Amino acid sequence: ITGLDLVEWQLRVASGEALPMRQEALAITGHAVEARLYAEDPAQGFLPATGTLEALAFPEEEGVRIDTGVEEGDTVTPFYDPMIAKVIAHAPTRAEALEALALALCDTVVAGPKTNAAFLVRLLRDQDFAAGAFDTGLIDRKLDILMDALKPSRAAVALGGLRLVERKRQAVPRPHWATPFAGNGGFRLMPSAPLSLAVEVDGALSEIQADWDEDGLSVSYRGTPPTFVEGGDGATLVDLPDRVVVLEAGRSTTLTWPSYRIEEDVGTSDEAVSPMTGRIVEIAVAPGAQVKKGDRLFIVEAMKMEHSVSASRAAVIAAVHAAAGEQVNAGAVILRFEPEEDA
User: Fold this and answer.
1) Cα 14 from Cα 169, distance rounded (Å)
2) What is the enclosing helix (H) or strand (E) of 38?
3) 252 exposed, middle or buried (CB, 10 Å; 0-12, 13-18, 19+)?
4) For the whole model, what pTM was predicted?
5) Among 116, 91, 92, 121, which Cα is nearest to 104's?
6) Is there a contact between 272 and 334 (Cβ–Cβ < 8 Å)?
């Protein structure tokens, strides 16, 4: 907002030079606002997220500045601050700066760890925040509204489903398409009938509807096609080997074909898991100990943040699977309780 490089001035003063301008010569022009784009999960209390930045791209727009120290292919680890970038927008007015920043975040591509991008976009467009009528309690008061921004839109799921089906068709060997009767492309002599196809949306099993007609392949999700007219922000598709990621208004929606793997269930009432990837600071219980609801079980630390995990019910500790100082992944089972009927 001053048009001057104040950091350069600091370095020059530290070197013994005089300030190049006097106070009365300075002027402020317009408004600037900064958002910190973090690898974190707002839906899980803003806990830090880790993982490889499988796709990372920032917009190059007039009035938008990106300060970052990572690039595509880097890994966000639990050992350092999980900030991906500072995104700064400058415009003649506060309202224009807020919207420019929101659009810049909408145009930012991040695939890999979860981020707070969608949360930031919703906050920037909140009426109270835009009007300057906010305090430190704003997020708590409007948490449900702000968190609603994290839910994938039907249009985003439909767009990702369309790409999944297109990729599946392209993967079929050419001989299978020698005749319309040999392939599985939905050819019918009678009027077309939509196919319901199972997909995983952000890890949850769901269904999309696919149809073929004279205009080609069409896909919908709960009656919604892949259209993005609302808000005018558009959507970005990121093709990864095992999944498709749809980015829309900062939201990240991941679609895959169901794996149908049989895995051990975690997170039940008979066990306590780590809420994030990090280092176990303390194990507060031992096998055979009796705990009541709310008692501290263990503390895990990552990226300068300690998170205390408490007992969800009264129980007897059956086994402890980690020790202080051990590095664990998010979802790792740290301890188990005796079954409720035996506790």
Assistant:
1) 64
2) strand 31-38
3) buried
4) 0.76
5) 121
6) yes
